[in-house]
Amino acid sequence: MVLTALWVLGGYLSGSVPYGLFVVRHFVGKDVRDEGSGNIGATNVARVAGKQLGVMVLLLDALKGLLPVLLARVLVPEEPWLHAGVGLAAFLGHCFPVWLRFEGGKGVATALGVLLVLLPWAALAGFAVYAVIFAVWRVSSIGSLAGALTAVAVGAFTAAAWAYGALAAIFLGLIVFTHRANIGRLVRKEEKKV
After folding, report:
1. Which residue among 15, 46, 83, 141 is least packed, with the fewest CB closer than 10 Å?
2. Helix, strand or coil for residue 77?
3. Per-residue pLDDT tens for 19-61?
4. How many angstroms separate the CA atoms of 23 and 90, rounded?
5. Does this model's pTM top 0.85?
6. How many domains is the chain partitioned into structurally?
7. Confidence band, pLDDT 50/70/90 cuts, at residue 1
8. 102 in a domain, yes or no?
9. Domain residue limits at 176
10. Is 193 a domain residue?
């Protein structure tokens, strides 16, 4: 039980590192929370500091989900619920980092990193849908929501463990929650393009 708690705590701490804040502050000298949407994720970093830094933050945010789950899967291979718990903790760390008074990003890149380890086909399908939708409409929130839905659908058929499919479904619900303001703007046709 203590080891499980430590794994989950490690996942949360990995996810809670605010790379978007650090990258923009280091390279541009701004606080990303004071610009654009105020979010620390890759989309707002791209708006505030350029696409290259946005891609850097996307990769870093994905890695902070990928690495703790990969480590858990390698060191404790027979515990799919532990892997899912570490992945969920990393996602929650990104969205609700203790260091930023629990005001973080929306979790899409971190979820992608987690799913690349646990449900690689679902992750790749979700990313492909995101990329196509973003390329056509240039609205990240639509791509994120459609990509999350795709990942759940593909994960339902490809999951090696029930816990992994359940985690993808939980991610979908949480991503809808973190995008609730975006959904409102989409309904009002006020959502901005990147």
Report:
1. 46
2. coil
3. 999 999 999 999 999 998 999 999 999 999 999 999 999 999 9
4. 19
5. yes
6. 1
7. confident
8. yes
9. 2-187
10. no
